[in-house]
Design goal:
The protein has 104 residues and is of the alpha+beta class. It is 31% helix and 12% strand.
Length: 104
């Protein structure tokens, strides 16, 4: 079995500065610089290929995808993003038997 890995996809605070009001594309540019400087793994960005991406996510037994608009700020009270879950994800609660079978 593999060790868990942290994969960053957004940044909300940098050195005490709240950057939630910045558009996602600008926050992502900040995250890119931080990740390079500190060797942090970050998620890939995909544009305009949601159906193809979701098919690949399901094929590789990943949890799902997050869809966001690049110009939106982070607003915790008003969700403007969508989480599209893989219904057959093997690590989903109650599906331990699939996870065990996959890595047996």
């Amino acid at each position: 079995m593999c060790d868990p890995v942290y994969v960053a996809f957004d940044v909300l605070n940098v050195e005490g500065a709240d950057i939630r009001g910045m558009p996602l594309k600008d926050r992502r540019a900040v995250l890119d610089r931080i990740a390079e400087q500190h060797e942090i793994q970050i998620s890939e960005l995909f544009f305009g290929c949601g159906k193809t991406l979701f098919t690949a996510v399901c094929f590789h037994d990943l949890e799902g995808i997050i869809a966001k608009r690049l110009d939106d700020p982070y607003e915790p009270a008003r969700t403007k993003w969508w989480k599209i879950l893989n219904p057959d994800y093997s690590q989903k609660e109650g599906r331990a038997e699939l996870f065990e079978r996959r890595y047996a």
